[in-house]
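Consider what follows.

. . .
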Amino acid sequence: MTYSLLIADRSYSSWSLRGWLPFAAFDIPVEVSVTRLYDDRFARDVAEFAPGRTVPVVRTPEGGLLTDSMAIAWYLAEAFPDRGLLPDAPAARARALSLISEMHAGFTALRGACPMNLRTGWVGFEPSDAVRTDLKRLETIWSEALVAHSGPWLCGAYSLADVVFAPVATRIVTYDLPVSDQARAYVVHHLSHPAFRSWYEAGFTDGPEQSHYEMNLPRCPFPMPA
């Protein structure tokens, strides 16, 4: 039983990361194809893979199509209930579902001002008031979850609640955003996760840097943990 997944540039496509991590982190076999954002081939590749315009996209072994990262997450959680994609304990599961939904629908200021970029860090980025508000909300919900479930992940063991925040963790270090020590420690857990490290390294094989993500700021190396 094999799934097929279409993603875009691993260094830049945050939704692709959210679509791929459930497979990699929970040991679900998948065949991965990669297209390029802001390239003439993107629309063609997506159209050939599925009748849609965005990534990630999954073809299921039964011929079904999943055209949104949350659809992928929910489908896999139901298809593989023994893999731990969602917590078993009712309270932890309720929190996980709430966190996933808030991430999927919210934090628009942070996501808009700070696109995911795993090729570099930026020095001197100044977050707007709206971005700072999003960061404060992140600190609050992360802290509540980490304390309630004793960490190091949001609901105890690594789950889909953590998957959806992986791109946010990268944004915090790419732009050196101001967060609490507790939040930064959680970010380091993300960057140290074996599945994320594999994704990060594979991103350098996807092609040259995308000029669309260039900023008028000094650069520094992306701060991956040793």
The mean pLDDT is 96. The CA atoms of residues 9 and 207 lie 8 Å apart. The chain has two domains: 3-79, 90-200. The two ends are 36 Å apart (CA to CA).
